């Protein structure tokens, strides 16, 4: 799998970039690099990558800014954020902006490779799926493009949001535990918590429900988790 996958690393720390490039190329990936967000965005617009590894703390255009700009331009390439911050608010912000995963510095090469393989595997699963679209109320979700539409209006969604929604859809009309979502969609050593799942549900409700404060499709099952009525 990895021998055909192209990855862009965007980081302003030369030693970090050299180390990642060497090790990922050794693992069979085709690696391109950029030293700042502006250069990274130009390369993203000019090339087709399977994955972007993006440092958050960069001068000028930050990783958050670049992630947001990619999603605003309907660039759906999976993004893994590298961050030195451990506060949950920063992680949640990155995920809300459309990142697919994050990893906190310092990290082991083994952990990064596991995250990379997991993200690429999920992308391949979507692309190879025989069922590309799901319908939830008036919302139509395309699993290939990570886009949703309702009444002809396009609704932007991250690939991770799509995954959570698809998992709920696969278990529609029955309660789903938060821990079941976490164990099914994230690696076992991930720092994701139940609060992360709750934040995804909030974002999904904003895009699906007519009245997010009084949800009809994604409802809370107290003491259990959530249920998708579809």
Protein architecture, described:
A five-stranded parallel β-sheet has the order 2-1-3-4-5, sandwiched between helices. 42% of the residues lie in helices and 22% in strands. With 230 residues, it is of the alpha/beta class. Helix 2 runs parallel beside helix 3 (63-72). The mean pLDDT is 85. It folds into two domains: 2-127, Response regulator (Rossmann fold, 3-Layer(aba) Sandwich); 129-228, Winged helix-like DNA-binding domain superfamily/Winged helix DNA-binding domain (Arc Repressor Mutant, subunit A), CATH 1.10.10. The protein contains eight helices and twelve strands. It has helices at residues 14-26, 37-46, 63-72, 88-96, 109-128, 159-170, 178-185, 194-208, and strands spanning 6-10, 30-34, 51-55, 79-83, 101-104, 133-136, 139-142, 147-150, 153-156, 176-177, 218-221, 225-228. Strand 3, helix 3 (63-72) and strand 4 form a beta-alpha-beta unit. It is globular.
